[in-house]
């Protein structure tokens, strides 16, 4: 088994162990996965001693004992109401996973695949979702305060709800994010950074406190909040037929090359 294969094996084991023992200490999940991986090519004789730690009570998550689910395969996993503050889910595969009601405060989801994931009522405040794939993800009632979504792909993501018309994107970093076709009516965009974002076909009707997004790409189907409707055309240049870019904040060489 190569080093890369061992790393992949350990990542999958961490995911499986968390699903089986969600209240176990992060360190126990980590050490058990590593111990099993070390003996992956041997015929199992008895449980690894580290597995006994899985029955210990979970301590309050911290930076020292951060749950490591990097590269974990959690496709369609039920993580509803999971307690995952500060968890590291970088590069995890969460395709169609249910994270409804989960606590992901300050979690790390860099490059995570959350395509079609259910993030309804999820606490993502302070989370790092840089370059995460959130295509068609359901973020209804999600708390995205101070969330880093720079370079994230939010194409056709659902960020609205009839009972909560103002999705919270307060101070969210959406630099270079792909929000093409995203539904954000009534979003609270106070101090949100949308520099260079792809806003083609996006619905921003009723969004509040949105600043002119320098370098952002938009088209004739983009629906703007009232405070920007009168200025957006005057402050933009046509970069291709029917496609425009807001001046300032850097110029993208091609609207199809927005980082995702």
Automatic annotation (TrEMBL):
Comp. bias intervals (Low complexity): 51-62
Signal peptide bounds: none
Span list, region Disordered: 36-63, 231-260
Coiled coil: none
PANTHER family, per database record: BTB_POZ DOMAIN-CONTAINING PROTEIN KCTD9
Protein name (record): Pentapeptide repeat-containing protein
Organism whose genome encodes this protein: Streptomyces endocoffeicus
Organism taxonomic ancestry: Bacteria, Bacillati, Actinomycetota, Actinomycetes, Kitasatosporales
């Amino acid at each position: 088994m190569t080093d890369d294969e061992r790393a992949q094996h350990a990542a999958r084991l961490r995911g499986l162990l968390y699903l089986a023992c969600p209240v176990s200490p992060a360190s126990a999940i980590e050490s058990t996965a590593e111990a099993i991986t070390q003996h992956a090519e041997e015929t199992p004789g008895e449980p690894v001693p580290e597995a006994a730690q899985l029955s210990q009570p979970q301590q309050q998550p911290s930076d020292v004992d951060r749950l490591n689910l990097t590269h974990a395969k959690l496709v369609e996993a039920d993580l509803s109401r999971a307690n995952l503050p500060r968890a590291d889910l970088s590069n995890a595969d969460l395709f169609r996973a249910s994270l409804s009601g989960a606590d992901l405060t300050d979690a790390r989801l860099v490059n995570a695949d959350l395509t079609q994931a259910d993030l309804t009522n999820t606490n993502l405040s302070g989370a790092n979702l840089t370059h995460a794939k959130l295509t068609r993800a359901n973020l209804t009632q999600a708390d995205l305060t101070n969330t880093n979504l720079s370079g994230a792909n939010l194409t056709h993501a659902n960020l609205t709800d009839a009972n909560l018309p103002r999705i919270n994107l307060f101070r969210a970093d959406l630099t270079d994010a792909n929000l093409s076709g995203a539904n954000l009516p009534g979003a609270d965009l106070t101090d949100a950074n949308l520099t260079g974002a792809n806003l083609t076909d996006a619905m921003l009707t009723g969004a509040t406190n949105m600043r002119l997004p320098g370098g952002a790409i938009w088209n004739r189907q983009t629906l703007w909040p009232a405070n920007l409707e009168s200025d957006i055309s005057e402050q933009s240049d046509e970069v291709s037929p029917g496609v425009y870019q807001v001046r300032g904040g850097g110029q993208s060489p091609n609207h199809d090359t927005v980082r995702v």
